[in-house]
Amino acid sequence: MQERLLKKIITDCAGPESEKLVDILYKKQNVNEFLIAKKLDLTINQTRNMLYKLADSGLVQFIRKKDKKKGGWYTYFWTLKTKRSLFKYKEKILKESTSLESRLKSLETERHFYCENCDIEYNEENALLQDYTCPECGEILKMKNPAEFTGHIKKEIKGLQEIQSQINEEIKNVEAKEEKSKERRLKVEKKEKEEERKKRKLERDKEKKKAEKGKKKIKKKSVKKFKGKKKKQKTKKRPGKKKFQKKVLKKRDKTKSSLFKALKRFSNKGRK
Hints:
Elements: H1 2-14, H2 19-25, E1 31-32, H3 33-40, H4 44-56, E2 60-67, E3 73-80, H5 82-109, E4 112-115, E5 120-123, H6 124-129, E6 142-143, H7 146-237, H8 241-271
Antiparallel strand pairs: 1-3, 2-3, 4-5, 4-6
Helix pairs in contact: 1-2, 1-5, 3-4, 5-7
């Protein structure tokens, strides 16, 4: 159904030759223009002209890339805009149905005249100006029977309304697919963002751990240095108790020996 509706709007815009374009581009993206020309059995210029007409109406879109193999010339890649095409066709159907409705209203409320020979129709005002005679052949104008034409117009309006309801249904289907694809894309983006956050958190945690380890090492080194300095000061300023006692004993022994010697000398002198 959707493909059939797309073919109608495409042929209305670019002619009957463009009908095959729908078969080539439908449900595809970025199709090479040379491949399109080959499948249509047309020259690249003819294909481009057809596609440019559709692009002006907004029914197709393209991207272009430089082809280094072909001397840096641009190659175009085309995509059919399904939703836009359906909306365009809907607008066309609405215009046709409104014009038919206004025509039906005028037939039901006004009188119309026509010439059997020339098959030209006149409203009552124009028929009065022509004195109810055909300006082409001079025959007398006959009044139209509205019942002969209103039934046919009503059928046309009904057919257009059915096509319009079909288009609305297809637009809903396209929008539902777009919504689903959008949800999937958002889920993927959300997942990627969460993964990025986790990675950043892990990196931050690693950096913190490194910084903490560095601080601990610096503290240990400073503590060791401080302890080393204290030990040196103790050895210099405060000698141990045992060493101190030995020195005192030595001094006492010296003083005793010196006194003993002095007494000995004195006793020797008295004897003499």
